[in-house]
Amino acid sequence: MGRWEPGAGGRLREAALSLFVERGFEQTMVNDIAERAGVTARTFFRYFADKREVLFDASAEVEEKALAALEAAPATASALELVAAALDAAADVIGQDRGLARKRHTVIMANADLRERELSKLAKISAELADALRRRGVGDAEAAIAAEAGAAVYRVAFQRWVDAEGGDLDLRGALQAGFAQLRTLAAPRAG
Amino acid sequence: MGRWEPGAGGRLREAALSLFVERGFEQTMVNDIAERAGVTARTFFRYFADKREVLFDASAEVEEKALAALEAAPATASALELVAAALDAAADVIGQDRGLARKRHTVIMANADLRERELSKLAKISAELADALRRRGVGDAEAAIAAEAGAAVYRVAFQRWVDAEGGDLDLRGALQAGFAQLRTLAAPRAG
């Protein structure tokens, strides 16, 4: 999510997320963020269009990398494997800094508008993955189910990762475990 | 969704949905709805708290029936079978009138606030299904994945049903087909 970036952009992101957690998103002003990061408000606006952008500016990069990974996957990959490859690439971006991801998640969950915006962003990514599957010849309903089921696995893995104590679990690992669980759940049962 | 109800409530629902489609949700006033249904605004408020309630008042019933079906399922049912039973009960309520379901869907998709509200209602139902699975002893992450994957299948089935030309496909049938597809997608592939 660009979260590892050095310099003013990274400091502004860190400052914004900390203030959103401490004071609430609504109560935090751009001036407060700039002040904590030790820059001017004008510098803030060189990096972000507004304070909400701090939370959502990574969407485009995540989407792009996810779609590129799907398109780069071998022709023999199944629909669910293609989705798993796409989400693995998304997790690679998002999973870089759990501290910041956790703050972002806390802020979004505490605000109905942000929550609903996040849900619709996730729905949009899922729709784009389904379209990418269709372009690779996957049937219409099958593409939708694979993309939506993959998004479901992602959400659960993300929650596990964000909630986990200690540093053993990484987001990509949680995602892979989730896909394995989905396979087990959907398998015909013995007996 | 109470959509089959006779009398003033049913007429008001029908009138509201038709007006929302024709004029847009924002542009439709309670007075317009009452007038088209041939009742007074006061009668409207005996049935609905406000115009948005016309779109969302079925949530409680759908949730309740879904949870009851999950709880009534046999102890031998797998986590995904429990979710399928719950969603079958939801589809039984929602699937009664495709014409109204389609209008409702059109209205919601055309308005960002309504769309985001719908997404968060669906997320809430999914969280409740996961909790119900946990109460039946399903593991934490497994419960979340089963509920979210089930919700994914439901959304795709709903879309297919709403979009289908002609009357062959019913919502419960689309849902069953979706679960079968999920099983196929998640199955280990031969070769």
Automatic annotation (TrEMBL), chains A, B:
Q: Which InterPro entries match?
A: Homeodomain-like_sf, HTH-type_TetR-like_transc_reg, HTH_TetR, MftR_C
Per UniProt, the keywords (alphabetical) are: DNA-binding, Transcription, Transcription regulation
Q: Which Gene3D superfamilies match?
A: Tetracycline Repressor, domain 2 (1.10.357.10)
All residue ranges annotated as the HTH tetR-type domain in the record: 6-66
Ranges annotated as spanning the membrane: none
One GO MF term, please?
Answer: transcription cis-regulatory region binding
Annotation: DNA-binding region: 29-48
Does the record bear Transcription in its keywords?
yes
| Keyword Thylakoid annotated | no
Which superkingdom, per the lineage? Bacteria
Name recorded for this polypeptide? Regulatory protein, tetR family
Q: Lineage from the top down?
A: Bacteria, Bacillati, Actinomycetota, Actinomycetes, Pseudonocardiales
